Amino acid sequence: MKYILYARKSTENDDRQILSIESQIFELKEFAAKEKLEIVASLCEAKTAKEPGRMKFAEMLSLIEKGKADGIISWHPDRLARNSVDGGKIIHFVDRGLIKSLKFPCFWFEPTPQGLFMLNIAFGQSKYFVDNLRENVKRGLRQKIRNGVWPGWAPVGYINNPKTRGIDVDSEKAPKVRKMFEMYATGAYTLRSLANWCKEKSLRGNLGKKIALSNVQSILQNIFYIGLMKYGGEIHEGQHEPLISKKLFDACQEVMVKRGRVHELHKNSFAFLGLMKCASCGASITAEKQKGHNYYRCTKKKGICQEKHYLREEVLTEQITSYLQKVSLSSQDTEKVLTALGNEQNKAREDAQAEVSVLKEQLANIETKLTKLLDVCLADALSTEEYATKKQSLLSQKITLAEKITDFETKGLSWLEPAREFVKSLNQAANLLSSPNPSEMTTFLKNIGSNHILRNREFVFTPKIEYKLVAERSEANQRNLTFPYWCPRKESNLHLGIRSPLFYPLNYEDISFCGRWRILRLHTAGDFLVLLA
């Protein structure tokens, strides 16, 4: 009789089970020599047998079916099959008389009803071992998740620690990943431009593969970078160090949802393309070049539009420049205000203790809600989907509160950093007025407001409240109108005729005065910073 020697190991990794194939072949050849068995072919492969589809296994059955061999030599029946399909094929070949003999050094087989019965049991045990192992592995992975440890490969910016079995920050890649989030949050970069940026900065995945367009989107949407983990459709807290703040992550998601990014232009460069929608029909505003000038008009892709046609780019630029002048702050005044804010740093740290106590109380309430939510789910009062949704919302609130507490404890009151960023943005508006690249205005306008539309050849949008207040104050100064005067730390301010209805229910604190600039902190659900000229 002629035999085929078949050896297999479960993993394809070269650095795992290195000696498995070698030891099997040596033992099987020694066994064949002792039993005086003729080996006509030796087949080896590194692939799991828990699922059908092994190429060498199929080649072995093909050789037997062609009559080039009568039997198989293998270390154990579990080397041949760990699934019902492949095990059934072996038994079917025995029933057909194609396989006349199966030889194993550690298992007995004869082509009799009793032998087939024992072989069937061996294959069943092999399948049971794989199935049981799978459940044990899943149980271990679920426990790792409950302990806050990610059970799989770390995403880009992190590395797997083989000693602690945890996830550590990759000191080389983490700054680049963080920069990627910061760039996308500005709205000035597309996913494709970020993919090209990764290529320029030699930022690759943990397996050495380049970061493609789809990888960039996956990274920007991965909540792992803010300290959360999504596993099995459920959100869990992680023990790993967050790479970015939740505020930055939310800003990126907002940009992605609104598709608020600068269009990559090829033939003609239109500064404000992609900024506006038509006020009448809601269609996009397109641009075209005629007689050496750029014009903007409705695409009319949503049907008949009553909006007036064509707005010259120079006129649009003049309208935008007019608004930027109202919210601009010179570099000299910017330095003065930033200095005044810096002087408030120490006092802010002292005042932060009361705020921290309130936030910690809110954090404790969320912890209680999470515990109660689990109890409700275990009582079958909530579906799995409802539980996952409510848990995700509570964990998101928990992350936000934890970041606020950290901000209070390290920097003082949380309005200081937003205040600096706000002041710098006003200075950015001043710099844009003299910028040779008007397309930068598009990015700035998207960041400070929403609902940018073109109505009757006039550019209109809804600015954020702080920019709206600065613009209103500037208009009042230009027209010599009386704008409400703020008396430091006096309740009478709340009864003055402020045009913005948001001011009526709010408390405020006058924290700094610098020349003609007064900085007010308004106490709302979250601190709100307004700078008035």
What does this structure look like?
- By secondary structure, the protein is an alpha/beta fold.
- It has three domains: 2-143, Rossmann fold (3-Layer(aba) Sandwich); 158-258, Hect, E3 ligase catalytic domain fold, CATH 3.90.1750; 267-459, no CATH class.
- 47% of the residues lie in helices and 16% in strands.
- It is built from 16 helices and 17 strands.
- The longest helix has 34 residues, at 113-146.
- The N and C termini lie far apart (99 Å).
Q: How is the secondary structure organized here?
A:
Layout: E1 2-9, H1 20-35, E2 38-46, H2 55-65, E3 71-73, H3 77-80, H4 84-95, E4 101-103, H5 113-146, E5 158-160, E6 167-169, H6 174-185, H7 191-200, H8 213-220, E7 228-231, E8 234-237, H9 246-258, E9 277-278, E10 285-290, E11 293-298, E12 311-312, H10 313-326, H11 331-343, H12 345-378, H13 384-411, H14 416-433, H15 439-448, E13 449-455, E14 458-463, H16 465-478, E15 507-514, E16 517-523, E17 528-532
Parallel strand pairs: 1-2, 1-3, 3-4, 9-13
Antiparallel strand pairs: 5-6, 7-8, 10-11, 11-12, 13-14, 15-16, 16-17
Task: Please tag this protein with its features.
elongated; 16 helices; three-stranded mixed beta sheet; 47% helix; disordered C terminus; 533 residues; Hect, E3 ligase catalytic domain fold; Rossmann fold; alpha/beta; 3 domains; four-stranded parallel beta sheet
